[in-house]
Amino acid sequence: MGKAFSRLRHATAMHTDRRIRSTHAVISAMRAIKMFTWEKLFIGILEAARKSEMAVIQRKALLMSFNTSLFGTLTKIVVFLILLTYVMLGNPLMADKLLSPGLPGPVFQAFLTIALINSVQNSVSVYFPMSIIMNAEVYMTCARLQKILEMEEKDEVGRIQHMETQLSPKVSL
C-alpha cells in the first residue's frame, strides 16, 4: 500500500510539474499567443495536462478511501479469524465452561482478545497506514529537494558585480 501511495505521489508530482511548466510557458508567451490567436490550442494543452493530473489525484483518493474503509471492518475480521482459529484447533468456545479451575474460561479469553484488538485498533488501522503514507510523501519531497540542491549553481552575484563595474566610471582626482 505504501509503494502504491509513493508511486501515485510521484506521478502526481510529475503531472503537476508538467502542467505548471506549460502554464508558465503560456503566460510568458501570452503576447505571441494573442497575436497569432492560439488561445484555443493552448487552452486544450493546459486542459489535457490538468485532466491527466486529476486522474492520478483521483486514483490516489480512491486508494485513500479504500484504506479508510478498512478501519471499521478490519478489526472485526481479525477477531473473527482469531476466534475461528481458536475453535478450529479444538478449543471449545462455550459459555457454560466460563471458568476453569484456576484459569479463565474460553469466553473470557474471547472477550479479552476482542478488548485487546479494539485497544490497538486506531494504531493499526489508522496511524500505521497514515505513517506509511506520510513517509512516502516525505521520501518524494526529499527526492525532489535533492534534485534541486544538486543542480548546477549559477553565478548571478559575479555577473551583477561585473555589470556594476562596467557601468560605474572610474573617477580620479
From TrEMBL:
UniProt topology in membrane: Multi-pass membrane protein
Main location: membrane
MF terms in GO: ABC-type transporter activity; ATP binding
Keyword ATP-binding annotated: yes
InterPro entries: ABC1_TM_dom, ABC1_TM_sf, ABC_transporter_C-like
The protein's name in its UniProt record: Multidrug resistance-associated protein 4
Family matches, as SUPFAM superfamilies: ABC transporter transmembrane region (SSF90123)
Regions that span the bilayer: 61-87, 107-128
Gene behind this protein: ABCC4_0
Taxonomic lineage: Eukaryota, Metazoa, Ecdysozoa, Arthropoda, Crustacea
CC annotations in GO: membrane
PANTHER family: ATP-BINDING CASSETTE SUB-FAMILY C, MULTIDRUG RESISTANCE-ASSOCIATED PROTEIN LETHAL(2)03659
Subcellular location: Membrane
Domain ABC transmembrane type-1: 1-102
Protein family according to the UniProt entry: Belongs to the ABC transporter superfamily. ABCC family. Conjugate transporter (TC 3.A.1.208) subfamily.
Keywords attached to this entry: ATP-binding, Membrane, Nucleotide-binding, Transmembrane, Transmembrane helix, Transport
